[in-house]
Amino acid sequence: MTTTHCPYCSLQCGMTLVREGRALTVEPWATFPVNEGALCRKGWTSTGLRGHRERLTTPLVRDRAADGSRGELRAASWDEALDLVADVLSRVRTVHGADGVAVFGAGGLTNEKAYALGKFARVALGTSQIDYNGRWCMSSAASAGLRALGLDRGLPFPLADVEKADVLVLAGSNLAETAPPAARHLDRLRARGGQVVVVDPRRTPTAERSDLHLAPVPGTDLALALGVLHLVVAAGAVDEAYVAARTTGFDEVRRSVATWWPEQVERVTGIAAAEVRALADLLIGTARAGGRVLVLTARGVEQHSQGSDTVLAWINVALALGMPGREGAGYGCLTGQGNGQGGREHGQKADQLPGYRSIEDPAARAHVAAVWGVDPTSLPGKGRSAYELLDALGRPATDEAPAGPRAMLVLGSNIVVSAPNALHVAERLRSLDLLVVADLVLSETAALADVVLPVTQWAEETGTMTNLEGRVVLRQRAVTPPAGVRTDLEVIAALAERLDAPSTFPTDPEEVFAELGRASAGGPADYAGITYDRIRAEHGVFWPCPAPYADGTPHPGTPRLFADRFGHADGRARFLVTTFRGAAEQPCDDYPLHLTTGRVLGQYQSGAQTRRVKDLPDTGPFVELHPLLARRLGTADGEVLTVRTRRGSMRAPARVVETIRPDTVFVPFHWVGANRLTNDALDPASRMPEFKVCAAAVSA
Amino acid sequence: MRGGGERMNAHVPEHSQHLVVVGHGMAAVRLVETLVAGGWVERGNRLTVLGDETGPAYNRILLSAVLEGVHDERAITLRDEDWYAAAGVTLRTGARVAEIDRGAREVVLVDRSRVPYDRLVLATGSIPTLPPVRGLVRPDGSLHPTVHAFRSAGDLRGLLAALDDPTRPVRRAVVVGGGLLGLQVARALGARAGRRAVVTEVVEGADHVLSRQLDRAGASILARDLARLGTTVYTGARATRLVASPMPEHAVGVRLDNGHVLATDLVVLTAGGRPATALARGAGLEVRRGIVVDDRLATTDPVVHAIGDCAQHAGRVSGFVGPAWDQAVCLAAHLLAGADGGADGGAGAAPYPGIREVARLRATGLDVAVLGDPEAAAAAGGEVVAVTNPVTRSHRKLVVRDGRIVAAALVGDLARVGLLTQYVERGTVLGPHEPGDLLLPERRTRAAGPADLPDTAEVCACAGVSAGALRACGSLDEVRETTRATTGCGGCSDAVRALLATRTPALTGGNA
User: How far apart are CA B360 and CA B321, in angstroms?
Assistant: First the structure.
């Protein structure tokens, strides 16, 4: 029996893996507090990938002819594959410089892997060109949280605190389907007499469990938040004492919302003015009665070219009502990927060093370089963000931009399914001299690679994850990996050795974690006081958890942030002005509909794992649309539709539902297709692509 | 095209332009904000705003909400003086412009001081029309003390002072004008938050209220709503004269052209406005109803522009903020492009597409939305799809042309107002049935009750459990134990209980 955590989303639900003979089954881990033994069907079936016939157990290499044309992938030995990779990377580095090699990581990697990958890029490759798919997850919330609150930890409190709120606003979250065990907190909140508000263009299963559901036009969430603050100000409901004592910048924000009266919000968002007032009245009445208002954002409002502004505007609402820092109140982000939180803290992001340190901060560089035993000046600077990196692959230098990378190493990401404007991204991947993908199965991205490295999966290895609460948890190895596969840490170490990297690259996760702790010490996300033993004993430890005090007493960790001060040097939160621009691509005569994308309960991310679990429903993609629109198009439930955007097209059956806006269609993104359609316009602050809205045409 | 270089200060770059905006209302503020955000000042250009009111710029739309007491008066300020200073914009409030000297490219203030410009924007707004009522204006030119206009923050303050004057209690009010503003003011007076309501009567010369926006069917429904809320409306009646009150407890009387006299303590004039065009006319620019502008919002003098209520584009003037903002943003794009490119004056920027209006009555208890101009659109040959239901007091009318909804009027039922606004503004082409379908009540089909679910239907999404599997269980404990249904998100708990409760006796027999 091994206690561990689910391989999928950011809840990192606790579970027990039981081995009986050759079988490995999932049983509840009732005492782990985040999920109290509850799991969704993805968790219950998570051992279903074990022993799968498509599991890769030998490296694959694609030979190239003298003219550069590509042959088929063939089996190769580890030595041959690793030698080839090291050889080409060295050559590319010699010819094109260190930034000729790129690294692409993932929010599903353990902290140890994310740390080792960032170190490998900076030390072994010397490249600045490293980023990860977490950029497409919660980077907008991260950017806003850092700017407004001075610290980015998804939830600044344990998830169970959600139950204590009197009003919970879920802005762009469908947690009943995307993180089902978390929905239990909604029911308990409502059983206590609290109310739940859901903002989503679709009446999702989460919205069905709410007291108030507002369905904005995709891409207009910012206008709603501005309109709510307008009414808070208009009603004189601002917590002036809190604003004066704990924040700066309110006056300009107060002025900036004067033009967002409810009828103006209605015109922009498509939400009736009366509903905007109902939401504001609920928040104002609750705050006036001394109650707790909690706003949680998720991808629905964050994956936009104004995603970080939308989060800032909701934080402004929470601050104006005097909520952040109170228990069961304030603002939080529902992180998406399993290690979306930890993955952004330890150096696989283009602008960061371990401990959530800035790579441009000389003191941070000196500290980390000392832990790594290298010269701080040898560390590269900030690189391109995830989409910009992919867009630059294989491109020659221009007057505006330096040349893009010629080779790339990908860990834990299925880019050609999950990147926006995916046809374009696939074309960039094909332009590389070398694409290396480490994965469990031949994902759509691995199928394009020159070298595929088979790696261990979840139950076969040990490592820490940091869940949506900032709780560091431990996944423990339960079974022996199949012969022929290696861990990501072993792959990184083997390549580092072949590249004659300075510093060391241990392969024991606990040893890597101890080094990560030292590298993070003193940073905002300080893990120095966390050990595997403590995590086991305490059901996880919340960062920041600095090294033990001088007398040896351990730091208790920090379940709740912001009670007395925010993360900025002066301890105050920042009100920041945001200006509504709207989605980058607006409907027109040729593409008259809004397209939005999202998840379904039974699948996860690009589906590389879940589509291969036979007990999970693999429906294939579908196009959700309203009966009014179906009648306009002359189609019916189940008929195959073509969805086109300026970037690509896909065909999928219609699902006619009354739960979506009639001007909007929805396509889930777990299958190839949805991201051929999505727009690659980026948020200027977070560099988040606009996955959640673009203009589309649909035909029968 | 650019002129007046010789007047520029030596340290200003040669390409620099001085833009002067006359007016400090909502159009002017949006123009200035857009220019500042676009780098107008950063690029070395100057920007001066001349406003004749003395306070900061404010949101005029919200004045009736302040009157009603649901909006903090301090919270209608759009931008304060500090913002202008920080943005590098010169703001001169209380600066009334007397004339424009186009020859010298100078604006002349009433104190005879002169402000030179390279480009000039007139955002002078509109002036309330004084209805021809004898006795409104006293010999010294001031309004009778019981009479108030309702256009500016100053008007609002005067009205609030009168309402709060303990020496002269206001129990009754007459609103002259049954347009959007008149109805908003009437409802605000009748529904003042935390104060004693004022009995309010509305006098409208046309034969129905909102005569610019609604047809008779819609207006009659609205009039009944008003009556229900305690506001009496006199249509087809003009106020002709202010007379002594027929009742001693009230301050004054309003005589109507039918001879009737309304006793009242307060008279509010909302009988419309007209574009403020005197400066433009005096400067020899083409003026019809408003200051005539082209698709670049330029007047007949290419360096003089006009936006907002004072401007007339393609034969139309608008009194709404939406078009004023659209014009401000469009003009800013032209000015910024012109500042970049110089000679073309911003010809590269997109032309102004024309006025699109959305009129939304902000009045407690009254649901009215008018998109575009339904009466004109119908008269111009649009196809009308309408549902009027006097029983439920709702009237909805869509005017369709080439499959697009070009205008709409909704009274008493604002279902789908958000969606209809999107369709009108985006010009979405609909199917032939769709306008009619949109007027049907929104159906929300309830999923079949648990008892009716076929055995194959999935009930618990978290664990993937079908109704059949649940029906095979004898108790909630058995459900949890054998299927794990209800243990994940908990969303199916009610359905599972219902399924267990409706099990057929034959199935439950053994366990009961």
Answer: 11
Helix residue ranges per DSSP H, A564-683: 627-633, 674-677
- Helix H or strand E segment including B158: helix B153-163
Cα distance between residue A528 and residue A516, in whole Å: 8
- Give the gap in angstroms from C-alpha A107 to the nearest C-alpha of chain B: 23
Domain count, chain A: 4
Query: Is there a single domain that holds both residue A636 and residue A535?
Result: no
Neighbours of B384 (CB within 10 A): 14
Burial of B204 (0-12, 13-18, 19+ CB in 10 A): buried
Is A577 an interface residue toward B (CB < 8 Å)?
A: no
| C-alpha to C-alpha distances, B486 to A602, B217, B454, B459, nearest whole angstrom | 16, 53, 19, 10
Contacts of B456 (CB under 8 A, 6+ apart): B466, B467, B468
Same domain, A119 and A184: no
Helix, coil or strand: residue A485: coil
Question: Hunting for tokens 């958890």 — which residue is that?
Answer: A545
- For the question of whether the overall pTM of this predicted structure is more than 0.90, the answer is yes
Asked if B75 lies within 8 A of A632 by C-beta distance, the reply is no
Please work out, in degrees rounded to the nearest 5, the angle formed at the alpha carbon of residue B93 by the alpha carbons of B89 and B96: 120
Q: A124 is written with which tokens?
A: 């072994």
* Tokens standing for residue A696: 């589309």
Task: Read off the tokens for B14.
Answer: 């040669």
Residue type present at position B205: G
A481 SS3 class = coil
Q: Which amino acid is at A381?
A: G
Cα separation, A92 vs A63, whole angstroms:
17
ipTM > 0.85 for the complex: yes
- Measured distance CA(B166)–CA(B67) in Å, rounded: 17
Structure tokens at A493: 């170490």
Chain B contact probe: residue of A6, A34, A40 with most B CBs at under 10 A: A40
The residue ranking higher by pLDDT, B415 or B31, is B31
R_g over Cα of chain B: 30
Torsions phi, psi of B74, nearest 5? -65, -20
Q: Render pLDDT for A74-89 as a digit per residue (tens, 0 to 9).
A: 999 999 999 999 999 9
Q: Quick one: tokens of A111?
A: 């902290």
Q: Does A99 touch chain B (CB under 8 A)?
A: no
Which domain, by its residues, includes A429? 60-131+339-542
Residue ranges in chain A whose pLDDT is less than 70: none
Last-in-domain residue among A299, A334, A369: A334
Residue B448's pLDDT is 64
B380 pairs with which residues across the strands? Answer: none
**Cis peptide bond N-terminal to A544, omega within 30:** yes
Predicted local distance difference test score (pLDDT) of residue A403: 96
Helix, strand or coil, per DSSP, at residue A343: helix
In this structure, the answer to whether residues A429 and A444 fall within a common structural domain is yes
Sign of CA dihedral A542, A545, A548, A550: negative
Identify the domain boundary among A542, A562, A579.
A542
Q: Which residues of chain B have a CB within 8 Å of the CB of A235? A: 70-72
Spacing of C-alpha A52 from chain mean position: 27
- Residues with Cβ within 8 Å of residue A111, at least 6 apart in sequence: A339, A342, A343, A345, A346, A463, A464, A465, A466, A472, A513, A516, A527
pLDDT band at B14 (very low <50, low <70, confident <90, very high): low
Contacts of A309 in chain B (CB under 8 A): none
Amino acid at the residue A295? V
CB A62 within 8 Å of CB A450: yes
Q: Which of B79, B414, B430 sits opposite A255 (nearest CB)?
A: B79
**Helices A221-234 and A262-269: crossing angle, nearest 10°?**
170
Label the pairing between strands B291-293 and B266-269. Answer: unpaired
Of B80, B358, B418, which is closest to A272 when you measure between CB atoms? B418
Query: Shortest CB distance from B488 goes to which of A180, A233, A261?
Result: A180
